[in-house]
Amino acid sequence: xxxxxxxxxxxxxxxxxxxxxxxxxxxxxxxxxxxxxxxxxxxxxxxxxxxxxxxxxxxxxxxxxxxxxxxxxxxxxxxxxxxxxxxxxxxxxxxxxxxxxxxxxxxxxxxxxxxxxxxxxxxxxxxxxxxxxxxxxxxxxxxxxxxxxxxxxxxxxxxxxxxxxxxxxxxxxxxxxxxxxxxxxxxxxxxxxxxxxxxxxxx
Amino acid sequence: xxxxxxxxxxxxxxxxxxxxxxxxxxxxxxxxxxxxxxxxxxxxxxxxxxxxxxxxxxxxxxxxxxxxxxxxxxxxxxxxxxxxxxxxxxxxxxxxxxxxxxxxxxxxxxxxxxxxxxxxxxxxxxxxxxxxxxxxxxxxxxxxxxxxxxxxxxxxxxxxxxxxxxxxxxxxxxxxxxxxxxxxxxxxxxxxxxxxxxxxxxx
DNA sequence: GTCTATATCGGGATAGAC
DNA sequence: GTCTATCCCGATATAGAC
Lengths: 203, 203
Fold this sequence. Notes:
The structure is a homodimer.
Chain A: H1 13-33, H2 40-47, H3 51-57, H4 61-80, H5 88-101, H6 105-115, H7 124-147, H8 157-177, H9 184-195
Helix pairs in contact in A: 1-2, 1-4, 1-6, 2-3, 5-9, 6-8, 7-8, 8-9
Chain A binds a DNA duplex through residues 14-15, 18, 39-41, 49-53, 55-57, 59-61.
């Protein structure tokens, strides 16, 4: 059996590599100028290829956006997943700190989630589902804390979940405008400490 | 002295009226599709005039955006300004409730503030200054509360100010995605009640 | 897989008649 | 003040050679 593409390490190897380059540059573009504000030409140029080549790998701009979003999702989850045992509060703070370390990641979600508010936006469904999932996940965490008697009385898990998601996004947006004047982690931490009762062996 | 425009109620009356119409439609467009996603043609059509006429009143798209933002600012402040004596907490909640009653207002600020994160965006300076002003204003309010002993111990006025602004914006964004599942006012109220100690004569 | 060339469309801005 | 017509640009997308 002769292999017509034996010069590559594997079939589609070059394609996969190219796609990754393109996704990386698209991510930078979307994160700074949003979806409407970015052009395929600019992304192609940044990737060092022609517009047509980009379009050979991603048929439409929309397909590229979806790829960027889902790709970043997987990477994002991987960042902190090595520390599964962390309690909720530390888990969130670790995630927030990790996000700040990934250039453009915060901007990507902040800009696109606002741009995609209108239902016609190609990213609308993605963000609608993302918010739902985040709220559900955090609500479960808060509910578990309450079951352990570690939630301040009067705090509603559902409302607290919405609040954490909102606070996180909102403080990140302000941080993008004034990184030196806004401390996203501190704001998040202060809220969680206000809402979660410390364990006995904690200070 | 003959008046060449005596058929109007006053000089520039028609212009002012036209400008207001245009601003109104531009506001709707920017609030749903953002700045980049909206076109002058579409705004002109919605205003019932031609593109050229719109451009006669607003030389550039950027000028139109700035006008929309500052115009809405004045109207927004006017809404609740009749109740100057309200304490901080009620003032914020009243403002939030009022905002929800103005269709598109929340979307306008949410979408544009995220889109304008990049310094090249024509609205960037406006939002940077707006965030600074909001944080300063709220910080002063929290500081005043602390002076009265009505701030929960450990709560930093500056951080609380950032938090309120972030929470407000973030919860509004979620509300735009799922108006039936997110209660912006409740989230804001819950946070403020967590942070502000009730007065003696309050429940 | 990658390119050049081109089609087609829609954007903002301009010129000039009325 | 308002319009039609047009310019010029940049956008996505397509065709087809190599």
